[in-house]
Amino acid sequence: MKNVIVGILTLIIFGLMGWTYSNGGAYNGGEHGKVIADLGNRTTAAVQDSEPQEKSDREKEDEALNALREKAGNINGFKVSDAYKSKCSSCHGVDGSGMQYGKKLMGPKLFGQSADAIYKKLDDFKSGRKENMVMKGLLLHMTKEDLRKFADEIGEFPARAKALK
C-alpha cells in the first residue's frame, strides 16, 4: 500500500514539474523574468532621456536621510564622545537638540536636562519600564557605569555650549 501512495505522489510531483516547465519555469524567466527585464529597460531608457524626471519616494527618503546624517555629523560646536556620536546622535542630534523627520519626532531634545534625569530615563529604557525598542536595543549590553557616563556627558551639554560663546 505504501508503494502505491508513493507512486501516486511521484506522478503528481512530476506532473506539477512538467506543468511549471510548460508555463515558462518558476525562476527561469517566465512572466516574472519578463517583468524584471521590462523594468530594466525602463530604467535604462529613463537614464538616457535628458528630461528631468520627478524623484521617486525612495530618492526623496534617501535625500531626507542624508540631510539627517549631515545634521547629526556637523551641527555642534562642542566636542562629544565617539560613543555618543555612534549611539545617540542619529536620533537626538550631536548637540542633543533633538531630531525630526518631517512631522515625525526621531529623538526628543536632551539638551538642558540634568544628568540625573537622563540617567533615570536611560535606566527605565534599559529595564523596560519605558518602552522603546530602539533605545532598549542600544542600551541592552551597557552597564550602569556606561549609562552614567552618557548621562553625565549629556548633562554637561549646556556648560559646553556656554563655554564656546
From TrEMBL:
Name the domain of life this protein comes from: Bacteria
Keywords from the UniProt entry: Electron transport, Heme, Iron, Metal-binding, Transport
The record's Pfam families line, in alphabetical order, gives: Cytochrom_C (PF00034)
Q: Does the keyword Electron transport apply?
A: yes
Q: Which GO terms describe its molecular function?
A: electron transfer activity; heme binding; metal ion binding
**Which InterPro entries does the entry link to?**
Cyt_c-like_dom (IPR009056), Cyt_c-like_dom_sf (IPR036909), Cytochrome_c_Oxidase_Subunit (IPR050597)
Which part of the chain is the Cytochrome c domain?
Answer: 72-158
Q: Which PANTHER family match?
A: CBB3-TYPE CYTOCHROME C OXIDASE SUBUNIT FIXP, CYTOCHROME C4
Protein name, please? C-type cytochrome
Species in which this protein is naturally found: Sulfurimonas paralvinellae
Taxonomy of origin reads: Bacteria, Pseudomonadati, Campylobacterota, Epsilonproteobacteria, Campylobacterales
